[in-house]
Amino acid sequence: MDQMTNKTNIINEDCVLTIAIPTYNRPEAIQKQIRLLLPQLNNSVKLIVYDNCSKPSVKSFFTDEELEKIILVRNKVNVGADANIARCFENCTTTWLWTLSDDDFVKEDAITEILEILKANTETVFLNFCKGLSFETKGFNELIENFNSSRVFSSSFTMSSCIYNMNKLRYSLIDYYSNLSSMVGTIILVLKYIQKNNEAVCKFLDESLIGSYNDQVGWDYRIYIHRSRLFKEAFYDKNKNNKYNKTLFLGCYLTNYWLIDNNRNYTKVSYLERWNLFLLTIKIQGIINAIIYCPKTIIKVALNLILQFDYKKFRN
């Protein structure tokens, strides 16, 4: 990696939060995001951009004055999205880390709001900002009871919604890297830590730090669904799988069904592929578990797929 720093980037004792933005070849988005953040920065926050070898370099889009206020880390080669995100965690030296997507544009008062919340939650391990959710958990069992919801599961690995207490999580990064291929290594990191530290607290807040989200899905859900079995494998326990099937794993399967049903990047995924993904999710979940825990969902997805069949195209 090539890291560009200057004297204004030196962390002082008041710096408690790192905002880390992994980016690749999205010049308009990264410029807009950085320029929303720059007026909000203060001595409590440092801003790092992880440029995954974009062409041209992210550095070329900013003035010298703007570059004085941020740290740019440029990979010598494209290491892939998952590895670039992981570097945000590995290199974090502050207490808190906010991983921020380059195209989920922050509110004008986002940093002020975050810092106030962090002051009130010094012992919290994981903060998740998701509209419609508001609860606190202590320990592993309380947390996984809420994972029977696709909203809880999906928001827990939505990049811009999550803030991590790295003072607590830093030494558990091995669990993240061991599960990097799952595409949900960040929440596996949190869950594994709490599994070993049963007094750990997580909070889900009915708030948003984002002013506007990009409606376009930037990742291929076909790959994600194939890899979702790795989430199950990360927590496989023959003595507890019956419990996990209706708690920890359930939100994962419901998220898969939702992705297939909504098909947000529909231009890439064929009708046949969606059926194959639907059957794969049932296979990963197990037919009996799918019938017991998701009967309405699988019926709804199957009916929607049948109704979306293009008979004219089939005849041609």
Summarize the structure.
It contains 16 helices and eleven strands. The chain is α/β, with parallel strands linked by helices and 316 residues long.
Mean pLDDT: 92
* Text of the CATH class of the largest domain: Alpha Beta
Tell me the series of helices and strands, N- to C-terminal: EEHEHEHEEHEEHHEHHHEEHHHHHHH
Query: Widest sheet: strand order?
Result: 1-4-3-2-5-9-7-10-8
Task: From the 3D structure, determine the CATH topology of the largest domain.
Answer: Spore Coat Polysaccharide Biosynthesis Protein SpsA, Chain A
User: Low-confidence parts lasting 5 or more residues at pLDDT below 50?
Assistant: 5-11
Bin the helical content.
Answer: 40-55%
Second rung of CATH, namely the architecture of the largest domain: Alpha-Beta Complex
- Helical stretch tally: 16
Could you describe the 3D structure shown?
α6 (150-156) packs across α12, α12 packs parallel to α15 (295-307) and α13 runs antiparallel to α15. The chain has a 9-stranded mixed sheet with strand order 1-4-3-2-5-9-7-10-8, sandwiched between helices. It has a two-stranded antiparallel sheet with strand order 6-11. It has 16 helices and 11 strands. The protein has 316 residues and is of the alpha/beta class. 45% of the residues lie in helices and 16% in strands.
